[in-house]
């Protein structure tokens, strides 16, 4: 039974208060009178951690008769956001903690502000992984999210002179109260060296790998609580260190530099997150990171298996392993190696186990993001894994030849090795061949996966492919981020909505209730006022909370087309300049997002948006009717301020490019209307909320492919559309400051190539924006549409996504029954 820890897990305000004071003095060595705000944060975090860890001990500790199949979510990235407020919400302790601290004259909100968020991801993919851990804990599935404990996560973004400047993220500097180091779980990982053959006692041919270098992976556990749940999920992150024998010989011979060099090299492995979310650089260190965390994680699963008294031949019965994109795809080869070289299973049995274990989620169709590694680099770093991959490939291609005799063209296209020129290992092919199921992240995207990147595989294995539409956690992104709305929702739809999001449909009837609409608008206005204050604090820009808040927050990328938004803004500006009486309702355009440091055009897009603000915000002719804000350092914490304040959600990627999007869900759930293309999950959001409550525009994915096949002429749009031409000429003239050459690269890109059809969609976008303005002038109609958005978004809870993974892919039964 659970250990008695009532001193530390009491849930009354007096008990929380006492535990907090105990931690302040005993764990932190601080007298309450001298404690800083950060000490208060640490003491409360440790207090709450006791509650969460206690749940963890009970949910993982049990020795059940038949252990449940566990889920391992392998992801190079996680973006959990601040933990403290989330745990308090999940445990139902928010108000008690507030009271306990208030009795000591401490303000809970000030304490919450002290937390540094772990920015261990780039954007959508990492945040999705964290939403899924939240839901796994909530629905009650034993699960571990495995990843890398980067010492430096995604950079902090500052804006200086209108440009992005990257600042190192030092998230560990104040100490991290959430993690528990587990020295007992450390695993060693090899690199380089060579392989050799040997013969076992039964005369069978065996291979072993003799790595040149060994690095140690130290395990750090962060418990992830679930909503109203007695289960927790674990986020287990690996930190690389030197093995203690790191080169004693060199050291003893006085070669300190060499000895230290190895230590430094080992530690460098988990030092920093690659700040790229759409471009592969093919850097060796990146492959090292991928293998490092994949190997540590699989070894850890084998260790747990052994503790449960099971053998490696039962691996797939105990573990369902999800590959979050191809970043951990090398795990397919590593599990094979562990099973055949280390545990001495036969190839065929090992291969069956491997394929019964893995499933793979694809998150992108962008050709420049598809991972492939030069075969020489791969073979030097992982010689045994290359041999195994070549063997997997040879056997796979033999099967294909047998099934499709004489169709040699299939072989080249299906092969795990790309042989068109310099040879590469194609990681998506490896992931697909090594998995029982492959899924995309929205219906449209899953169809496109089957038609494009993995078309040849879908032809031979149609039943392998499926869709699981992404979801987001309503706890963090509604209950925590939008307390005003949450109160309204609880009154209107009952208190259970955060765990049963389809209950929100009860709101539908209230869309026609004028009194309810008034309350709804009040909540939105309060959220906008709160954001307006923050904007002033961070940028100095004054905004009017009664204006339409038009929001585009996401990584900066050409395919997401922030520059389409900017062209529209500048065209409105020119319209008002030409005709001050033009009927254009007041709007605040809010941008946020990071650009990859080496992505020149993305940085130009940021600079144009800040330049647009400098031009427009204080122009007396505009008189405050348009404001343009670039909100710096968009991260999870800031997102929680932005989403609840959005009236309009910009989801304007070129159709076929955005796999799903998840910000689109977060804003619609918070009552924003969407202006968007038929891309990613927009398609399903529009279906859910009703086409009359969604501003659709632009080419469809099919039309885009047609244009791409037939060729297009961006200049024709420039020449035939006066508004577009004048806007582009205006930018090219240097009127935005910085001289006429500043934005030349961006302009030239649009006029000469326009790879994402910005100019082709400009007119349709402008017309959709016109419809937005018209609806906005009728606040009652807008409020009705806003309520219906929230009411109809129940499908997009990550709890629903996780239940689908459990049922259709992982074959595990959640502890908590569905709604
Ligand atoms: C690859 C190689 C080297 C360095 C970094 C990468 C890399 C890192 C992150 C590549 C892609 C990465 O993330 C892609 C991503 O975030 N995709 C988004 O996934 C979301 C969740 O499914 C979707 O909602 C978004 O549409 C999709 O863009």
Automatic annotation (TrEMBL):
Supply the Gene3D superfamilies for this chain.
Answer: Glycogen Phosphorylase B
Query: Does the keyword Transferase belong to this entry?
Result: yes
Task: Report if keyword Lipid metabolism is assigned.
Answer: no
Recite the UniProt keywords alphabetically: Carbohydrate metabolism, Glycosyltransferase, Pyridoxal phosphate, Transferase
MF terms from GO for this chain are: 1,4-alpha-oligoglucan phosphorylase activity
Question: Its catalytic activity?
Answer: [(1->4)-alpha-D-glucosyl](n) + phosphate = [(1->4)-alpha-D-glucosyl](n-1) + alpha-D-glucose 1-phosphate
InterPro entries reported in the protein's UniProt record: Glycg_phsphrylas, Glyco_trans_35, Pyridoxal_P_attach_site
Q: Which residues cross the membrane?
A: none
EC number(s) given by UniProt: 2.4.1.1
Cofactor(s) listed: pyridoxal 5'-phosphate
**Top-level enzyme category:** transferase
Question: Family assignment?
Answer: Belongs to the glycogen phosphorylase family.
Q: What does this protein do?
A: Allosteric enzyme that catalyzes the rate-limiting step in glycogen catabolism, the phosphorolytic cleavage of glycogen to produce glucose-1-phosphate, and plays a central role in maintaining cellular and organismal glucose homeostasis.
Q: What is this protein called?
A: Alpha-1,4 glucan phosphorylase
